[in-house]
Structures are given as C-alpha cells and as structure tokens.
Amino acid sequence: MLRIAVLDDYQDVALRLADWSSLGSDCDVVRFGCNLAGEDEAARALAGFDVLCLMRERMPLPATLIDRLPKLKLVVVTGARVRTIDMEAAVARGITVCHTFAGESAHATPELAWGLILSLARFIPEEDRRIREGGWQATIGTVLGGKTLGLVGLGKLGSRMAPIARAFGMEVMAWSPNLTDERAAEVGVRRVDKQTLFGEADVVSLHLILSERTRNIVSAGELALMKRGAILINTSRGPLVDEDALLAALREGRIRAGLDVFDMEPLPADHPLRHAPNTVLTPHLGYVTEGAYRAFYRDTVENIRAWREGRPVRVLAAPNLGETP
C-alpha cells in the first residue's frame, strides 16, 4: 500500500478536484486540513507516508524533518518555485521532488493586489463592517485616477499590474535591483530609483522573489519616504518588508497596508498585525482560486502516476532512479 499525504488542504477540496482513484486501489490518500506547525508534530503525523503532496510553501521540508520520515520516497509541490525544501537532503535520501505548473497564478495574484488597493482606497471592509453593525458611512475615500503606482519588481506578476493601473488612469513607475530601461520601456512604465519610487508613489506594490538580497528590502527608511496616507501592498513574501518598521508606520497612521503575506504563516493568533490599524489583511490568497487548485491537484496526481511508472515528470530533484514502487 502506497500512503499519500495531501497537506494543508485548508478548504477541504483536494480530494474532489482531481481523480485520485486513478492511482489505483493500492494507494491510501489522506488529507490534512490544518498546518502541521511544528517539526515534531509533522514528524509524528507523516512518518508512515511514502508520498507528501505540499501546497506551495505552507510546510517547510528541511533536512532535519526529512531525516525523521523514513518511508518518504516522493515529494510533489505545487508551483515550480520552492525555497522551503532541502533538495540536497532529499536526493541524499533517495527522494524524488516534482512540481506542478503554476496554473492561473499569473492572473490571480495581481487581481488580488488590486482588490487590496481598492479596499484600502475606499475603506470597503471598514464600511462593510459598519453597515452590518447598524451604522452608516464614516470614511472619505480617494480615487486612483491621476495617482501614481510604484511597482517594486517588474517580472511576470509586476508587469501585469501596469495595464490595469493605466485603465484606472494612473501613472506607473517601477524599480527593482536589476531593472533596466529596456525592460521598463517594454512594459510601458517609467524606471526610477528606489528613493523616487517610495517618495512619489501613492500606491507601492511589491512583486519580488524573496532572497537574502531582497529580505527587508522595504525598511524603516523606505517607509519614512512614503507620502502620508500612501498605500503599501505586499502579495509576494512577508519578509520583503521589515515587520517592526511596518507596524510602527501603521500605528502612527503614516501609511496604509494591504497584506496577503507574512513573516510567519499561518499568522499566529496573537500576532500584532491582526490588530494593526490602517490595514486590510488576507491569508495568502494570491494564488488561491478554483482554477489554480484544479491544475495543481491534476498535475499532482499525474506526477505520482508517472513516478510509479518509472518516468517522473516535472522533476526538481531526483536520485538515480532505481526500482519503482
């Protein structure tokens, strides 16, 4: 019997969005609806499984945890980019790591970013709550037309933000450590330096990959440059922003922030960001759409089937292939 663990299925949809029965009657598929927060908890829960199906980077798989999973032979992770699996440790243990395609994430994440922008500009969550509690309007919103969007990062996701901004009548500027004039011109935006972007933009939206180079790339200095009342959007990775500096700016009422990502996920129940003013928070929903999930789980099942047949696909890391199960 091949035991398969489907992890972090928060919405309880994994088993109905793909045909797991196609893997055969000798497969036991078990879903986990909550995050296995600690390594000890994960090791106890997963020690008996041959295959782990990870949803993006919700559960890290460091060498120390891999060493405590004696039966593990295959890991499938949704999406092609992953920083939380120790690939060398996996290969050393004879474990194959495969990925899925990204699905519709290229559309989904920028769309959520605009949802956060509009929610902050027009105080939508606050006024929704107020009217449900029996009240009436109390805020004064701002329009986006005529304002400036600053994009930190102009890759696949950042570049999708630009035409939407222009549809609102916004000017668009961009900066990143490697951004060239040619790339900016290709997307139709103005390349500026970092200080200009944070000082002049009415909305700043982050679209960078997290690395040691980009960690805390938005620090107290950048936040201090932002206009009073400006909006900061982060749908990329929490550690791009210095969390303590962000909390200070929010509490002082200097800026507003729409956050879909956090340093620690799930966000702890007692985390100060849960009570921070001038924020709209979402629980890392950028890629969470039915279309993306259908693609993720379809590819996951296909990956397991191909691996069992001795012809693994979409391989991120693999030992020399020997006998197949």
Assign a percent range to the helix content: 25-40%
CATH topology of the largest domain: Rossmann fold
- Main sheet: which strands, in order across? 8-7-6-9-10-11-12
CATH superfamily of the largest domain: NAD(P)-binding Rossmann-like Domain
* Poorly predicted ranges: none
**From the helix content, strand content and strand pairing, which structural class follows?**
alpha/beta
Largest sheet: 7 strands, parallel
What general form does the structure show?
globular
Q: From the alpha carbons, calculate the radius of gyration and give it in angstroms.
A: 22 Å
How many domains make up the 3D coordinates? 2
Task: Lay out the secondary structure.
Layout: E1 2-6, E2 27-31, H1 39-46, E3 51-54, H2 63-66, E4 74-77, H3 87-92, E5 96-99, H4 105-121, H5 124-132, E6 148-152, H6 158-167, E7 171-175, H7 181-187, E8 190-191, H8 194-200, E9 203-206, H9 220-225, E10 230-234, H10 243-251, E11 255-259, E12 279-281, H11 290-308, E13 315-317
Protein name: 2-hydroxyacid dehydrogenase
Pfam families: 2-Hacid_dh, 2-Hacid_dh_C
Domain D-isomer specific 2-hydroxyacid dehydrogenase catalytic: 37-313
Describe this structure in words.
With 325 residues, this protein is an alpha/beta fold. The protein has two domains: 2-103 and 289-317, Rossmann fold, CATH 3.40.50.720; 106-281, Rossmann fold (3-Layer(aba) Sandwich), CATH 3.40.50. The protein is 31% helix and 17% strand. It contains eleven helices and 13 strands. The strands form two sheets. The chain has a seven-stranded parallel β-sheet, with helices on both faces. A six-stranded mixed β-sheet has the order 2-1-3-4-5-13. Helix 9 links the parallel strand 9 (203-206) and strand 10 (230-234). The radius of gyration is 22 Å and the shape is globular. The protein starts with a strand and ends in an 8-residue tail after the last strand. The model has no long low-confidence stretch (mean pLDDT 96). Pfam families: 2-Hacid_dh, 2-Hacid_dh_C. Keywords: NAD, Oxidoreductase. Residues 115-286 form the D-isomer specific 2-hydroxyacid dehydrogenase NAD-binding domain. This is 2-hydroxyacid dehydrogenase. Belongs to the D-isomer specific 2-hydroxyacid dehydrogenase family.
